[in-house]
């Protein structure tokens, strides 16, 4: 990419962000848009503009974000959201501190060398794929081989690594404190009084599953055991319940239409309401509801009596016993009576609870293998798209576009955005597949599945986006030479010289992500348009309107790996092309501001795991640092720097640092510490209410006074959990 195209891309992205920010300022003050820009406040029963300013100043939201405290975030959006801001501020601190030393040091050192001028006939070591620009002169590519100036770049690797160790250690301690404070809360949380028991053996003759588990835990915990809930196979009853809820929504919609128009609506009884007999909608859905209620009650009795499984939720009368039981070995055989802390009721993935230990292990390894194969083969279309979307290659493949591409304005726009947009489209197709695969491992909770999917997505992004794009263009042009002369030194040289040649691409990619990405995030233009279209043409009831504007959560499964990819890119180019540190600081700084506003006003958390995402984030940051150190070892070697081996101690230190952090901190995230669980509550827990918290809607009776809870029930907090189960 030429320097002019880079500036056009950067300027266009910045201009779009300013426009989107002004749109946000204007649209968020309209009363008809409050459900899009303040849904979190509305759901909590607060006034949309309470504590905020209606000034016309487009930067007022920044002041509100700056003045909010971490406790405000915890109170409004939970610990998990606060932990995400710890991640953003940690990345911001790493790159800001690194940039304070590296930018004034490395840029003059690189700019005053003359490697590119002396090698002007060889374009294999530039940052802009064949064009010498001002950006090349400010990069490590302008440093002559064996130059003593390379000492400064080696020192920069050490500085970035030490800064990262400091900020990661500080962040891990802080998140551990956040988690402990939340778990020590005096409020009653059902999951703190329960454990999840899996891999139960079949009961002896003459005993039911419930009697067996009650006797087992009552013998071990005679004074603190309360009762148990045996997990049941709910697929059929869930389907009946879903249909019943659907009929209720359609009945409410028909009644709303009747009230608004004074005409009783009708519909056809066939497929999708398009064929079949024409009937009165209100009478028809009322009849279906009555039929479904009868079917539901019959199926509920069958489920409780005949479909109990070898998993259960066990309740205790205090938190410390539950915490102790969750981290204890209950059976000599480790594949029997396995226990863990119970997830929140709304998080449970019920269909996974009955999967046996060895079945889960086999599923896990199979899915790891499948994901690895997917990553390897997905790189082929990514590399192909990255290669062919360069204008030079497009003209070879599609010759008739040459006259259009030769137009300066068209060429500039295509060079600026085409490869990046193609890459983003490919990445958008993945998250649902990875989340599905993670749940298929037998993971018992939604938050755990999201963490697993996030990890897969991160490694996928790094391998296919970072490494794939880095090598793609070079491979496209040199594959014939490699095939003719497949020597190891040629392959190593290819790997060593590919990274700096993609620097300008990634500078543009990061700029596109923070200007366009966060501009759309702040303005919420797309959700606003969709909401008003649905409200005008589709929604007839208040429930349908609420469903249309409900914002969901921060989408950690894609947001966290997306941020980690930017962190990895910034790490790996921080010494080779130090200008990327400015872009990294801008990305995480702007992200902190925009998401602060969204967390306080927009997004509604769908679960609370008390910061369990942090060990995952910490491990991936260290993986990014490790990759950066390996890359610098290879690139300094390509520069034939005699002291390249001095990078090896850093690689070893990173591995040791990761091990020490895991040994010191991870246990407090895997289990609840007993010193945390022993804190007194402000009121005695209602154990029956805690028990009822795990009853699924599909097993709840429509006549509560007549229903007997037989311990084979669990609870979903929302309709989405039924779908997940």
From TrEMBL:
<dbReference type="InterPro" id="IPR027815">
    <property type="entry name" value="CSC1/OSCA1-like_cyt"/>
</dbReference>
<feature type="transmembrane region" description="Helical">
    <location>
        <begin position="150"/>
        <end position="169"/>
    </location>
</feature>
<dbReference type="Pfam" id="PF13967">
    <property type="entry name" value="RSN1_TM"/>
</dbReference>
<dbReference type="Pfam" id="PF02714">
    <property type="entry name" value="RSN1_7TM"/>
</dbReference>
<feature type="transmembrane region" description="Helical">
    <location>
        <begin position="616"/>
        <end position="635"/>
    </location>
</feature>
<keyword id="KW-0812">Transmembrane</keyword>
<keyword id="KW-0472">Membrane</keyword>
<protein>
    <submittedName>
        <fullName>CSC1-like protein ERD4</fullName>
    </submittedName>
</protein>
<feature type="domain" description="CSC1/OSCA1-like 7TM region">
    <location>
        <begin position="363"/>
        <end position="635"/>
    </location>
</feature>
<feature type="domain" description="CSC1/OSCA1-like N-terminal transmembrane">
    <location>
        <begin position="5"/>
        <end position="170"/>
    </location>
</feature>
<keyword id="KW-1133">Transmembrane helix</keyword>
<feature type="transmembrane region" description="Helical">
    <location>
        <begin position="85"/>
        <end position="111"/>
    </location>
</feature>
<feature type="transmembrane region" description="Helical">
    <location>
        <begin position="6"/>
        <end position="27"/>
    </location>
</feature>
<feature type="transmembrane region" description="Helical">
    <location>
        <begin position="365"/>
        <end position="388"/>
    </location>
</feature>
<keyword id="KW-0106">Calcium</keyword>
<dbReference type="Pfam" id="PF14703">
    <property type="entry name" value="PHM7_cyt"/>
</dbReference>
<dbReference type="InterPro" id="IPR045122">
    <property type="entry name" value="Csc1-like"/>
</dbReference>
<feature type="domain" description="CSC1/OSCA1-like cytosolic">
    <location>
        <begin position="192"/>
        <end position="352"/>
    </location>
</feature>
<keyword id="KW-0813">Transport</keyword>
<keyword id="KW-0407">Ion channel</keyword>
<feature type="transmembrane region" description="Helical">
    <location>
        <begin position="641"/>
        <end position="661"/>
    </location>
</feature>
<feature type="transmembrane region" description="Helical">
    <location>
        <begin position="417"/>
        <end position="437"/>
    </location>
</feature>
<feature type="transmembrane region" description="Helical">
    <location>
        <begin position="564"/>
        <end position="595"/>
    </location>
</feature>
<keyword id="KW-0406">Ion transport</keyword>
<feature type="transmembrane region" description="Helical">
    <location>
        <begin position="457"/>
        <end position="476"/>
    </location>
</feature>
<dbReference type="InterPro" id="IPR003864">
    <property type="entry name" value="CSC1/OSCA1-like_7TM"/>
</dbReference>
<dbReference type="InterPro" id="IPR032880">
    <property type="entry name" value="CSC1/OSCA1-like_N"/>
</dbReference>
<comment type="similarity">
    <text>Belongs to the CSC1 (TC 1.A.17) family.</text>
</comment>
């Amino acid at each position: 990419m030429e320097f002019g195209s880079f500036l056009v891309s950067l300027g266009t992205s910045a201009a779009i962000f300013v426009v989107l920010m002004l749109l946000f300022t204007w649209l968020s003050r309209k009363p008809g848009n409050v459900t899009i820009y303040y849904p979190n406040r509305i759901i909590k029963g607060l006034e949309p503009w309470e504590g905020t300013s209606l000034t016309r100043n487009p930067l007022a939201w920044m002041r509100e974000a700056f003045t909010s405290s971490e406790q405000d975030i915890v109170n409004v959006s939970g610990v998990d959201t606060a932990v995400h801001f710890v991640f953003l501020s940690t990345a911001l601190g790493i790159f800001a501190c690194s940039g304070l030393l590296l930018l004034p040091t490395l840029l003059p050192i690189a700019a005053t060398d003359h490697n590119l001028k002396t090698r002007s006939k060889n374009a294999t070591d530039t940052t802009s794929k064949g064009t010498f620009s001002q950006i090349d002169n400010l990069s490590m590519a302008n440093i002559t081989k064996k130059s003593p100036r390379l000492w400064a770049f080696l020192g920069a690797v050490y500085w970035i690594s030490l800064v990262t160790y400091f900020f990661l250690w500080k962040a891990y301690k802080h998140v551990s404190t956040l988690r402990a404070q939340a778990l020590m809360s005096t409020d009653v949380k059902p999951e703190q009084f329960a454990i999840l028991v899996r891999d139960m053996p079949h009961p002896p003759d003459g005993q039911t599953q419930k009697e067996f588990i009650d006797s087992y835990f009552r013998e071990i915990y005679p004074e603190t055991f309360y009762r148990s809930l045996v997990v049941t196979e709910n697929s059929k009853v869930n389907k009946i319940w879903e249909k019943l809820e659907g009929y209720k929504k359609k009945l409410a919609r028909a009644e709303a239409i009747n009230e608004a128009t004074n005409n009783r609506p009708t519909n056809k009884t066939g497929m999708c309401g398009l064929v079949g007999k024409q009937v009165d909608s209100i009478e028809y859905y009322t009849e279906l509801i009555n039929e479904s209620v009868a079917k539901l009650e019959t199926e509920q009795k069958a489920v409780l009596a005949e479909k109990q499984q070898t998993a259960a939720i066990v309740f205790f009368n205090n938190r410390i016993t539950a915490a102790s039981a969750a981290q204890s070995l209950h059976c000599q055989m480790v594949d029997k009576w396995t226990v863990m802390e119970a997830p929140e009721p709304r998080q449970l993935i019920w269909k996974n609870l009955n999967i046996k230990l060895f079945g889960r292990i086999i599923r896990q390894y199979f899915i790891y293998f499948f994901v690895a194969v997917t990553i390897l083969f997905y790189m082929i279309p990514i590399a192909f798209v990255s290669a062919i979307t360069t204008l030079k290659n497009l003209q070879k493949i599609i010759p008739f576009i040459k006259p259009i591409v030769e137009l300066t304005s068209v060429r500039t726009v295509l060079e600026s955005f085409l490869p990046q947009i193609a890459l983003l489209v490919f990445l958008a197709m993945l998250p649902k597949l990875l989340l599905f695969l993670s749940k298929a491992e037998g993971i018992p909770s939604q938050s755990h599945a999201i963490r697993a999917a996030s990890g897969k997505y991160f490694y996928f992004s790094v391998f296919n986006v970072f490494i794939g794009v880095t090598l793609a263009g070079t491979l496209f042009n040199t594959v014939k030479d490699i095939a003719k002369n497949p020597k190891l030194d040629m392959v190593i040289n290819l790997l060593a010289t590919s990274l700096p040649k993609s620097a300008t691409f990634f500078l543009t990619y990061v700029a596109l992500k923070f200007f366009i990405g966060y501009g759309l995030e702040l303005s919420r233009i797309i959700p606003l348009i969709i909401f008003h279209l649905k409200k005008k043409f589709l929604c007839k009831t208040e429930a349908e309107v609420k469903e249309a504007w409900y914002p969901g959560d921060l989408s950690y499964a894609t947001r966290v790996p997306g941020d980690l990819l930017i962190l990895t890119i910034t790490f790996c180019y921080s010494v080779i092309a130090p200008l990327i540190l400015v872009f990294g600081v801008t990305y995480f700084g702007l992200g902190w501001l925009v998401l602060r506003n969204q967390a306080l006003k927009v997004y509604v958390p769908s679960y609370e795991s008390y910061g369990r995402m942090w060990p995952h984030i910490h491990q991936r940051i260290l993986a990014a640092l490790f990759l950066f150190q390996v890359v610098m070892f290879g690139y300094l070697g390509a520069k034939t720097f005699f002291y390249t081996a001095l990078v090896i101690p850093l690689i070893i230190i990173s591995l040791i640092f990761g091990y020490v952090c895991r040994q010191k901190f991870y246990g407090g995230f895997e289990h609840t510490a007993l010193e945390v669980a022993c804190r007194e509550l402000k009121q005695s827990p209602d154990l029956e209410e805690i028990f009822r918290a795990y009853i699924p809607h599909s097993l709840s009776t429509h006549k509560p006074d007549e229903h007997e809870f037989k311990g084979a029930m669990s609870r979903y907090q929302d309709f989405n959990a039924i779908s997940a189960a």
